[in-house]
Amino acid sequence: MRQPMRHALSATLAACVLALSGCATSGAPATAVETRSTQELLDASTPADWRTPDPANLLYMDLAGGRVVIELAPAFAPEHVANIRTLARGGFWNGLTLYRSQDNFVVQFGDITEEGVPGKPIGSARAKLPAEFDRASAGLAFHALPDADGWSAQAGFVDGFPAARDDRKGAGRTWLAHCYGTLGAGRDMAPDSSNGTELYIVTGQSPRQLDRNITTVGRVLQGMDLLSVLPRGTGPLGFYEDPKQRTPIRRIRLASEVPANERTPLQVLRTDTPLFDAVVESRRNRRDDWYVRPAGHIDLCNISVPVRTPPAG
Amino acid sequence: MRQPMRHALSATLAACVLALSGCATSGAPATAVETRSTQELLDASTPADWRTPDPANLLYMDLAGGRVVIELAPAFAPEHVANIRTLARGGFWNGLTLYRSQDNFVVQFGDITEEGVPGKPIGSARAKLPAEFDRASAGLAFHALPDADGWSAQAGFVDGFPAARDDRKGAGRTWLAHCYGTLGAGRDMAPDSSNGTELYIVTGQSPRQLDRNITTVGRVLQGMDLLSVLPRGTGPLGFYEDPKQRTPIRRIRLASEVPANERTPLQVLRTDTPLFDAVVESRRNRRDDWYVRPAGHIDLCNISVPVRTPPAG
After folding, report:
1. In this predicted structure, what is the pLDDT of residue A3?
2. How far apart are CA B115 and CA A68, in angstroms?
3. How confident is the model at residue B93 (pLDDT cuts 50, 70, 90)?
4. Which residues of A fall within a CB distance of 8 Å from B187?
5. Which of A33, A131, B84, B193 registers the highest number of CB atoms within 10 A of its CB?
6. Radius of gyration over alpha carbons of chain B, in Å?
7. Which residue range or ranges hold the PPIase cyclophilin-type domain (chains A, B) (predicted)?
8. Strands B267-269 and B307-308: what pairing?
9. Which of B110, B180, B236 sits opposite A204 (nearest CB)?
10. Residues A79 and A180: beta-carbon distance below 8 Å
11. What domains lie within chain A, and their CATH numbers?
12. Looking at the partner chain, which of B4, B110, B111 has a beta carbon nearest the beta carbon of A210?
């Protein structure tokens, strides 16, 4: 059977938990870092190439179909992340729904209560937060990509999160970029109208036009395949017209509040290492034999930072 | 309720058949072309701004859930398109399946018959075709975007199809780009191993690394929401492990072979007009009040060329 490419997610490959582009094994000999495929590079990784996210930064969204694991980014949106932690501890989202799925764009979840109707109480969480669209570049370890894109002065990664920055003319601002799997906080017209109760996750072509127009708070590490297949809503903006079409959320908890034996062990490839640079290069110029013309380029949102189940032992 | 943006597909808006980004109506006054929103521009369009695709270039894929409408691009892959027409006339795909869905990448359909087992007969279609990865730029009306991307010397549109070209140093080559909804012909290791029987459609972040590595043959005009929600296959590359998970294809026909009263009337916004330039500008710099920081940029694959049901009368 013919395939569009050797863009593989091997069923036997524990290292490729997410749909990492290019988990295919190349037949080419590994003569130098630059000629190894992504999978060969990951196979050669050491424990120090991986980091284990802080359980206080992980959200588990449990659906009937399985668990979505989200990593929060307090370095980018500290007030929103603190509020989301409070909301999760209070069980805010338990029993609420995913109430919107717009094709090639986002899914959204939270409290769909209509205007004028009292919403679900938010307990000790704050109703009002400042906008956190970007932050000072100072104090962030930004690992730049070799390629530019048209959306920002520079693109790269901060602790595994796709990010962009503008340090021209002393601007000195950095922000989380809208890529597949990015988690953001829905807002109304006022920039400071988000409080983390209504959250969206990008399921379509990277909507980078949203960057610096809304507060981004994290990214999905595992379980995108549970969200990306939700039927598209037929109402405006992909909202479901019939409440029965909404997908129930059993519960959303912080991993740190979950008993150890119920946690989902995950590790994320570090993005500040020579190995990561080699992985990026292996995506910029595909080395497996299928490709006849390596692109010599990659966009920020084409890079899926590898996530794995930690090896046994 | 809070929204990630005014990225609207109005239920009452016949002009927005596809999930066009930015069908929201702006509250801003229309003082000049450059300040109008996408929707205001479309509302002001004239019949001459739209084209009706040739029925000989339209494929109807009928699924249990509805119809997917695909426009073929004979200008880019004449031999593949001719073969696909022959295959459709012979009913080749009728009763076959969508047998692969890889998250954030592609769905694929055709004859999943395994290696070594005789496949479904292809009738008078050709088993062997040349690779048609790109073509000469000469003779194509390429309408360039104002923005560059890192994937090609120039990005733009040809008759509504996202395209890229390299005319530097006399290269003079143009190709259909891999964006959301692009249709391509799966191949094996040999560049000339595709014949159009196995086709894939992009459902994830634009995999531009495939450009000029495989033959692209068209794009989906309507019905992406039927394909993008197919459960992801859990086998390698998103192939379904259980044949029962495959989605049956009732039939694929050329619109020109379908009785007029069973056709799906569609028009596509022309991409070689001042109106289209204004639409692009309205996407580069969002004018509705929700945005506090227009991007001043857009990538090729962020532009969904509007498709509509022709207005009555």
Report:
1. 58
2. 36
3. very high
4. 2-4
5. B84
6. 20
7. 66-254
8. antiparallel
9. B180
10. no
11. 1-52+266-313 (no CATH), 63-114+123-262 (2.40.100.10)
12. B4
Closest CB from B7, B290, B299 relative to A150:
B299
Residues 6+ apart with CB under 8 A from A192: A128, A129, A130, A131
Tokens of A238: 């992909």
Contact check, Cβ <8 Å, B189/A290: yes
Flag if A7 and B105 touch (Cβ within 8 Å).
Answer: yes
What is the C-alpha to C-alpha distance for residues B52 and B74, in angstroms, rounded to an integer? 16
Per DSSP, B121 falls in state: -
Tell me what ipTM this predicted complex has: 0.90
> What confidence score (pLDDT) does residue A253 get?
98
Q: Which residues of B touch A37 (CB under 8 A)?
A: none
| A211's tokens | 């960057």
The SS3 assignment for A176 reads: strand
Both tokens assigned to A77: 């949106």
CA pair distance A237, A235, nearest whole angstrom:
6
Work out the minimum CA distance from B277 to partner chain A, whole angstroms: 18
Do A289 and B7 make contact, defined as CB atoms within 8 angstroms? no
B277: burial class by Cβ within 10 Å (0-12, 13-18, 19+)?
middle
pLDDT tens-digit readout, A106-131: 999 999 877 778 889 999 999 999 99
Instruction: Give the DSSP H/E element, type plus range, for residue B155.
Output: strand B154-158
A299:B225 CB<8 A? no
Q: Does the distance separating the beta carbons of B238 and A11 come in below 8 Å?
A: no
Question: What distances in angstroms separate CA A22 from CA A160, B54, B183, one per listed residue?
Answer: 18, 38, 20
Contact A235 B11 (CB under 8 A): yes
Q: Which two tokens stand for residue B299?
A: 């990538």
